[in-house]
Amino acid sequence: MSDLHISPAGAADLSAVLDFWKSAAEGTSISDDLAGVERLHRRDPHALLLARRDGELVGTVIAGFDGWRCHLYRLAVHPGHRRQGIGAALLAAAEERFTALGGRRADAMVLDRNERAHRAWEAGGYGPEEHWTRWVKPLAR
After folding, report:
1. Is 74 within 8 Å of 111 (Cβ atoms)?
2. How far apart, in whole angstroms, are the C-alpha atoms of residue 37 and residue 19?
């Protein structure tokens, strides 16, 4: 897979990433807008990793580290490029980033209904922790 290039997103990539997620990612998030992705990029310009093949965006992952936990979001691979190791390469790059930052354990947000994603995460060595439930509260703007 020497033709695959993984690097952090630049500010000029952010609109394209949002468009990419519309076709490659499952579900939407309250943060799936330009302001949200720009805020992420300003806070941590190396968190959003992009995979490109021949210049084409084929995958993404957000590898966020808050100094305590390593969080993975938006692992997405273009439908026409799945099952080629791109997701695994993105996870490896995210894990390298976490290790370099001193992270000890990575966690991922994975939709319960996304069976295809479950297989990809399991192949990467991840598994659900049945004793946890995610509690959320949308914050007023």
Report:
1. no
2. 12
Q: Is 25 exposed, middle or buried (0-12, 13-18, 19+ CB in 10 A)?
A: buried
pTM comes to 0.90
pLDDT (tens digit per residue) in 37-69: 999 999 999 999 999 999 999 999 999 999 999
Question: Quick one: how far is CA 100 from the chain centroid?
Answer: 18
DSSP notation for 11-75? GGGHHHHHHHHHHHSSS--TT-SHHHHHHHHHH-TTSEEEEEETTEEEEEEEEEE-SS-EEEEEE
Whether 14 contacts 40, CB under 8 Å: no
What is the rounded distance in angstroms from the CA atom of residue 60 to the CA atom of residue 86?
A: 9
Query: Rounded to an integer, what is the distance from CA 113 to the centroid of its chain?
Result: 18
Give the C-alpha separation, 59 to 69, whole Å: 23
